[in-house]
Design goal:
mainly beta; Immunoglobulin-like
């Protein structure tokens, strides 16, 4: 027992460096629920994505809706969430449709549905600052086009509207970016740092 105590004292006595990760803090995360009844093509809740269909008879009236809330895991509180929106051209490589669900588990899509990491850029539009939760948002394709100053007739397949979130916490912290270990749809992470609606031609 004496030898064990000596070893423990020596180990702790040798620590000279202080590492940045030792100053961790708890945070809250945004939580999104997609209204899977308001999508022009079938989707899955875990994908955090809905679809407009360019082959539909009236694209402008097609709907997209989601509910925004937050989770603090009894460690943090949220005073407000800033909701930003953008219109984005299709990436060079886009997720497959219909959504491919990973296996084993059959719960999550096999790939993130929008680019990561999720960082609000300087050109993104602050749509609303939410202070009462949960908050439901509902839009038609025409409304989203107007909000983002986009001519709906020029939209192409796989272009998308995206909503991102900045959290203002009760301790004064502001969470402005989320990386893959927080909000990758393919991994079932605890937060939903963005949600979007993508144009298809099915």
């Amino acid at each position: 027992m004496k030898y064990l105590l000596v070893v423990i004292i020596v180990l702790f006595g040798c620590k000279k460096a202080h590492y940045e990760w030792e100053d961790y803090q708890y945070t809250a995360v945004p939580v999104v629920t997609v209204d899977t009844t308001k999508t022009a093509l079938p989707t899955r809740q875990a994908g955090k994505v809905a679809f407009f269909n360019l082959k539909g008879p009236d694209v402008a009236s097609q709907e997209f809706a989601f509910t925004l809330d937050w989770a603090g895991f009894d460690k943090a509180t949220v005073t407000s969430i800033e909701v930003y929106t953008t219109y984005n051209k299709a990436e060079s490589s886009v997720p497959a449709y219909p959504l491919v669900i990973s296996s084993p588990g059959n719960q999550y899509p096999n790939i993130a549905q929008f680019p990561l990491p999720s960082i609000v850029g300087s050109g993104e539009l602050l749509y609303e600052t939410v202070t009462t939760f949960p908050k439901t948002f509902s839009f038609t394709a025409a409304q989203l086009a107007t909000i983002n100053n986009v001519d709906l007739s020029t939209v192409k397949v796989n272009d998308y509207f995206l909503f991102k979130f900045i959290l203002n916490l009760g301790d004064g912290s502001r969470i402005v970016s989320f990386y893959n270990n927080i909000c990758d749809e393919a991994r079932g992470e605890p937060g939903d740092c963005r949600v979007g609606v993508r144009f298809k031609n099915q």
